[in-house]
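Question thread 4412

I'm putting together a teaching handout and wanted feedback from people who do this every day. The idea is simple: show students a protein as raw sequence, then show them the structure tokens that encode its fold, then repeat with a second protein so they can compare. Below is the first pair exactly as I plan to print it.
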Amino acid sequence: MKEFYMKEALIEAQKAMNLGEVPIGAVIVKGEEIISRAYNLRETAKDPTAHAEILAIRQAAQALGGWRLNGCDLYVTVEPCPMCAGAIILARIERLFIGTMDPKGGAAGSLFNIPEDGRLNHTTSVETGILQEECSAIMKEFFKKIRKKEK
């Protein structure tokens, strides 16, 4: 099932790419039901907080009628940044599944490990490498296109 949900997150990432956004997608699952899905919209919304994870968390909270997302899992194509990792903890998400890691900005194992930091009032388990090649490939494709435009 992990691969199924990550494929759904990749569909969201493709939507971001089609808009010229950094192609990161996220889905939140409770039980076996996807309760929210989102993709990066920073450029479109002109909002530095419009990351896929933040938007998915907001939608899930609306769908469930509260900010505590107990029993929910988040699937995201790229390792969350510090802001998103903090939001994951604050939302009480149970498990985080990551496609590919972000060695330059990741806060779920690369630079920091906010979700599993036992000093915080909640921890979220982290599993990485779900459809890693596919998640990495869409990012590489996006940045290759960006570099071509800059020349």
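The second pair follows. I'd like the answer to focus on this one:
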Amino acid sequence: MSADASTPTGADKVARLLAGPSGLGTSACHFPRSPGRDTLEPGEDQAPGKDYGIDLPAFYHSGLARKDIYAPLPYMEREWGDGSYPPLYCPATVRIDNDLANEVNQRLVAWAEKVGIYATQIDKFRDTGFGRLAMLTHPDSNDPDMLLVAAQMNAAWWAADDYYADETSLGATPTELPPRLALVMSAMDPPPPAGDYTRQLDAATQADPVLVALTSATAHLTRHATPAQVMRACNATFQMYVSWTAYAAWRYLETLPPVWRYLAARQHDSFYTSMTLIDVVGGYELPANLFCEQRFHRALMQAGTASVIVNDLHSVAREAADELPDSNLVLLIAAEENCSVREATERTVCLHNDFVRGFEASQRQLAAVPSVELQRLLRGAQAWMAGGFEWHSTSSRYK
């Protein structure tokens, strides 16, 4: 049966929402930025939603939501490393709460001991501080259990990267990576039962600490997220793994990819995956049609790519020292341009700053969309960039 031409479709409704309201009396439905102000003054009591002219979801009135989660964060040039390189253009860090970070990290280490990841390196894992990463990158939640969702998922993703892709000392080999990743997908998103074959799959999953960690972390995510949010995180993970197989081929063939090809892969293997958890940890949901809308998707990809370039900048020495060096943007630019690592680092900083400014422009463009959840998630992406910068600058993993 065909739809009546006068009846708006779901796509029409999303398009109208993204276009913003129009006509008389609708100017208050936009998200204005006060001239010369990026954040509320400390202690200023602005109720959630004030000046936005739209009704807020019920949870915004529950007293659990923070009051400072709507105004975009200011950007600044931030010193990094030993201070001798050009600064990174990045939002300001929202929160540093060491007590909260320690609480989340203690819970995370207890979980890691239970599932078995980093069993021979548990003190090193503790010092890495994935609990601190969750505290820094999700400042709109003070709930340790919600922050643990992000900490567990990130720790499990990193474990897969270390054990399967990067660290030869932990058993990573290029030829084993693709079949291992196929099992990861089945651990996070179990396939339909297939009799005895499923029992064999379950046995293999339970015998691998990385798969146990991913299964457990996804189960915790499922307890706090909607089905759409869970599947969003799963699909972003599987998208990321396509890039990992490319890295494995390059390592196996001992061939350096051109920078453009690496960057194309890296943009889909970025902290975009981690950013799919922003609304889950914050206790709300950006509807799927808005999350997947092209302008917002591009903005979150810009934020995720900028954040993963920060990772490349801090990982140069670590990755160059591995028996089978992994692809790294700085090292690839140095090889392709036949320039020094310092010059390649400076070019990488410029690229990072371009991505951040691209996100900044996207955020301005999307500021007129009258969706509280979309505006909150955009600010959440800013907070993630800032927190990721802070964590890479202080984590023992990159010292």
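Top answer:
Good format. For the second protein you could add a caption like this: Residues 227-253 form the longest helix (27 residues). The longest strand covers residues 75-78.
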